[in-house]
Amino acid sequence: MFDLMQACYENLHRAQFDRDLDKKWLVIQVHDPATDTLVGFSTQVVLHTEVEGEPIRALYSGDTVMAPSYWGDKSLANAWGQLALQLIDEADPDPLYWFLTSKGFRTYRYLPLFFRQYYPRLGTEGSGHYHQVVDSLGKLVARDAYDCQQRIVRTDSSRYFARPRAVDPGLRVRYDPHVQYFVEQNPGYARGDELCCVAPLTRGNFTSLAYRVINASTASQPVH
User: How far apart are CA 166 and CA 103, in angstroms?
Assistant: First the structure.
């Protein structure tokens, strides 16, 4: 996992990677079925906090990477969606969200593809409630590195950042309004700034495309 991460990110150190991994409780791994080679993974943890005095939960996707030759593969999204549905169907009454800190346009792009409601999004400023949810989770995850004005986790010299080929939107920024919006909201993405995003995790908030991906047969392997 570290080798795959290091191939896609710069300024990444093993001790930092291990510390981050120790804070998570589940890893989704994707293997090439022909060679059993690890080609992608995403670390996951459920966070607990309060908004306006009420408890909430959030599935937080941490380190997430796919080998460049597998970009566009749906296996990781399939396994993540199955995990999300399991959490949705639990008897816990607290509201559930997906909390995403997005270093690049590829991860942000999952929001309009997978969700009917999410924040931040093109064409709306979002509700005060969403702002408070993001603020509470951003402070919980990033502490002083969280910028509550822009709702971004600011990078510094100790943080890793994606290699240019992974985050450069190229021509997409001209023809994809969601990519353009991400770049406008997070102009420091290339140096590692992360845009904080949330989406309510409910069955009704998934799009029809999300269900097609989630219900597809893949080679994903969730690992506890």
Answer: 10
The distance in angstroms from the start CA to the end CA of the chain is 14
Q: Is 65 exposed, middle or buried (0-12, 13-18, 19+ CB in 10 A)?
A: buried
Query: Residue 77: in which H helix or E strand, if any?
Result: helix 75-88
Long-range contacts of 85-88 (CB under 8 A, 24+ apart): 85/203, 85/214, 87/46, 87/57, 87/59, 87/201, 88/201, 88/202, 88/203
DSSP conformation letters of 99-123: EEEESSHHHHTHHHHHBSS-BSBTT
CATH number of domain containing 206: 3.40.630.30
Please state the domain count of the chain. Answer: 1
Which tokens hold the place of 162? 């994606």
| pTM given for the model | 0.87
SS3 assignment, position 12: coil
pLDDT digits (tens, 9 = 90+) for 135-180: 999 999 999 999 999 999 998 766 767 676 666 777 677 888 999 9
Range of the domain at 119: 2-223
